[in-house]
Every structure is written in C-alpha cells, then in structure tokens.
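Researcher: I need the complex structure. Ligand is protoporphyrin IX containing FE. Inputs:
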Amino acid sequence: MDGKLWWYTTRASGLVAWGLLAAGVLWGLLLSTKLVTSRPRPAWVVDLHRFLGAAGLTFVGIHVTSILLDSYVDFGLVQVLQPLAATWHPVAVAWGIVSMYLLVAVEVTSLLRARLSVRAWRLTHLLSFPVFALSTVHMLSAGTERHQPATWFAAVLVSAAVVMLTAMRVNAATQPAGPGPAVTPAGARTQG
Ligand code: HEM
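Model: Output:
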C-alpha cells in the first residue's frame, strides 16, 4: 500500500458512514409509517434503528480522524471543525462538517431522551433529515467516487425512498385520528 492509506480510509469510512446513516433514516421512516411492524413492536426493531445511527457516527469519527492522520491532503483540526476553513474543496467539505454537528445533536438528544420532553426530542430528531440531505450533497460534491454512476444511483434511489416515506408519514399524521394509537416517530414515547 502506498502513502495514501489514510486517504483511502477516509474515503471508505465516508461511504460506510453515509450508507449506515441512509439505512438508519430509512429504517426510522419504515417504523414510523408502521410499514414493517405491528404493535406490540419487538425491541430489536428500535434497537436496530439506534445501532445504525450510532454506527454511522462511529464511522464519521473514523472518517474525520483519518483525514487528520492523512498527509496526502493537508487537513488540521481547524479545517475539519470549522466550515469553509479548508483550502481543499471548502464548500463541498463544509456540507460534511455541518452534517456532522447535526448528527452529534441527534445522537446526544437520543441518549438523553429520558430527560427531555417528547417535543424537544422529536424536534431535534427531525435534524436527521438535514443530516441525510447535507451528507448526500457532501458525498456527491467532495467524494472521489462522485464520478461513479453507482454513487449517483445510490443517492437518487435512497433520496427518492426517503421523500416517498416522508410523504406517507406526513399524510398519516395529518389524517383525522382514528380509534387506534397515533402514528409516532420511531422510538418515540406514546401516551398510555
Ligand atoms: C455526517 C458526516 C459525514 C458523512 C456521512 C461523510 C461522508 C462522506 C462520503 C460518502 C464521502 C465520499 C467518499 C468517496 O467518494 O470516496 C466523503 C468524502 C469526503 N469527506 Fe466526508 N462525510 C462527513 C463529514 C465530513 C467531515 C466533518 C469532514 C471534515 C473535513 C469530511 C471530509 C471529507 C473529505 C475531505 C472527503 C473527500 C475524500 C474523497 O476524495 O473521496 N467529511 N465524505
């Protein structure tokens, strides 16, 4: 392996992080639209949603750490933490940095959920949508693999599925309440 080991690690971990976060968003939407399970909901389905988010954040950590260790392109702490501070594709990298901060907010509030009101947790959890959108823009603008048709195919396919499931979720939430329990986001506490 040549001197680009950390650069390859950056690229691979970025792709894995995006895949895990995309899967986490899709799984959360499948749960909240109740397309995959009925009540009572087995614990593993929500555990899987949590796992995908946590694993995505772990790979973002590997992604950023390997950029710092890499010497092929020059990134320091300021360049990985402050949007637009990088000289290498500053705007494309900034989408990733903003996405990382939003992801941290989603993860931290999920860990502290028992201490938060349902409304506060739910509002922060909605940041998952900009996390997905911005990390997708980041992948398609910063990534070396953006030249591959497969990258665009995956981004378009997953984005279409997210839009479709979100429309179903919004539609269900705006329907008059029936006799059954209200539709809630994945893992949200329900009344009663
Ligand atoms: C939620 C957060 C993030 C996700 C999901 C993510 C994901 C990705 C993906 C999928 C790629 C494309 C890899 C490739 O095509 O080879 C990429 C590239 C890149 N990301 Fe991130 N990223 C995130 C945050 C960050 C942050 C905070 C930085 C800080 C500097 C960063 C810097 C880069 C750079 C420099 C590249 C270009 C590597 C290449 O040539 O492919 N990313 N990222």
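Model: Summary of the prediction. Helices lie at 5-32, 43-69, 77-81, 90-111, 118-125, 128-142, 149-174.
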